[in-house]
Automatic annotation (TrEMBL), chains A, B:
Coiled coil: none
Name recorded for this polypeptide: TetR/AcrR family transcriptional regulator
Superkingdom: Bacteria
Keyword set includes DNA-binding: yes
UniProt xrefs under PROSITE patterns: HTH_TETR_2 (PS50977)
Keyword DNA-binding: yes
Pfam families the UniProt entry points to: TetR_C_3, TetR_N
InterPro entries: Homeodomain-like_sf, HTH-type_TetR-like_transc_reg, HTH_TetR, Tet_transcr_reg_TetR-rel_C_sf, Tscrpt_reg_YcdC_C
Protein's organism: Marinomonas primoryensis
Amino acid sequence: MKRPKDQLKAHIRAQNQTLILETSERVFARQGLAKTTTQMIADEAGLPKANIHYYYRSKKDLLEAVLERILRLWLDSVSEFNVEEGPKHNLTRYISEKIDQSRINKNASKIFAMALIGEETFVLDYLRNLFVTELSREKATIQIWVDKGLMASVPTEHLFISIWAMTQTYADFDAQVKIMLQKDQLVEDDYEEAKQFITRMVLAGCQVMEVEV
Amino acid sequence: MKRPKDQLKAHIRAQNQTLILETSERVFARQGLAKTTTQMIADEAGLPKANIHYYYRSKKDLLEAVLERILRLWLDSVSEFNVEEGPKHNLTRYISEKIDQSRINKNASKIFAMALIGEETFVLDYLRNLFVTELSREKATIQIWVDKGLMASVPTEHLFISIWAMTQTYADFDAQVKIMLQKDQLVEDDYEEAKQFITRMVLAGCQVMEVEV
DNA sequence: GTCTATACAAAGATAGAC
DNA sequence: GTCTATCTTTGTATAGAC
């Protein structure tokens, strides 16, 4: 049975962990994974460095906790395909949600990209699991649409690779995008233009029927 | 007037610099920019660490030399648009060349991506220059095609952002691509499929006329 | 031009007092 | 649970002999 004192402790623990994770996310995204020091995180969180190591034994542990948090959040923010609604609605929504993710959670996206480019085992393992479960279902759904004549047959894997690449680039390489668009900051309209153009290419490339289903 | 001795020294210098740069490119790509130590580079090049610092005063200098080498090489490996040939040929060739770049010079692409995601001043400055000179010309060429009715009017900046994102992802995030395709290594056929699919989306999205010009 | 030895700084991590 | 002080390792960079 939990006593009040334990509850207080648990509360403090949860609060500090959240503070550390949120701060880490910012610092990791800003500085890069390897350049980030536990000292920087401690300073920005307003805690002594030893506290960081009290909650997360090593920097690696901390990074993995940050990644886990990001990935859980991510899965929730993108809808699954709904076969009845047909390819047009689903692909349009999917692209829209991925772009929103880039805008709203840019740091998360950057950290994920950094971990992926650095081939962090943690992220690779996660992806392997995800693809076995998720992608095979999306692939089956697309096949149904193809069979119904609602869209052309496409290499599903390359389709997803392309959509992810196009949408994430607005978060991961936003510095490049800003230079291209000659802007100091990206605004909502920029993301909307991106959505429209990407959607247009995907729908046209997959020869998605214009008709409603 | 150069004496033989000076020529010998110059030769040794050039040879060592090339060795160091090529080795650095491999190690930077494998380990990440920040994780790479001058010691690793020295070991892999078979030189004492002090020699690295003799040729490149600091790690930052070395990284910039590596980046400069990569960027020079890159510019040469992609053709400019040729207005007479029309959009179909040009876009198809452009995508093909970019994918080839990903395959043949994967390390260079990764280092570039790492530097970009880390917002290295050196790379951002380079891009700024490039866009002022190159992109404005490509943009003008596309406008000519649009005026001639050879393709639809598209947001040029987003078009290039998308093409770069899709083609580079096969180099930068090849770990992810491998998982998606369930392969240990990407082979030429994988890159060919990517080329075809990306080209298909771009041409369809831009409503490029099928007719020859 | 090469390389050993070393200076110096900074990072990750922990011990131990409070 | 908090935090100061400290240990250990490792990195960048250079001095100085050859």
